[in-house]
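Practice problem: predict the structure.
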Amino acid sequence: YVLGNLVVANDANATANNILASLELFRIGIIVFLMVALLDVVVAWALYVLLEPVNKSLSLLAAWFRLVYAAVFAVALLPLLNISQLLGGAAYLKAFETNQLHAQVMVSIGAFHAGWDLGLLLFGAHLLLLGYLVFKSDSLPKWLGILISIAGLGYLIDSFGKLLIPNYNINIAMFTFVGEFLLIFWLLWWGMKRQTANLAAQPRRA
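Answer:
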């Protein structure tokens, strides 16, 4: 949301001026991105525990894909930190012309997106494995596993497209993410249902 409102495609000056005008918001966006990467580590562990009974080896592999994705995503944030420094007004930056600084801002944004696309390639592989495990599980619905696998394919197609095809501008994942979205709410519902059942099964004190 932050980048989408600040970055103007093919306009380095407008992008740099937008970020300068909202530098605190930009830095908050970086912190939120970092929190997402850290939470992905927790999610990787939780899904491994949930799906280990289905297939321990594949569940571990899926967890590793998500962990590596989180690491790649965290490293991809470094160019955004670089932008914060470039526009921070340090005295040594006076050696650069304004247009040079703004051009470096766009290069850093491009590097961030390239790192993110690489990370989403790993995330797509994670979802493919996750979808298979959900499909094979006796506790989760098979239709959810199919939708999660379709979401993974969407990420894989988009990531390979951006890495291999110049000016690739198709966003298949925008239409295939449904399974990933539904998994969140299904797990929340399932968890609350199990907790309610466990509480009901506990003996009442006199």
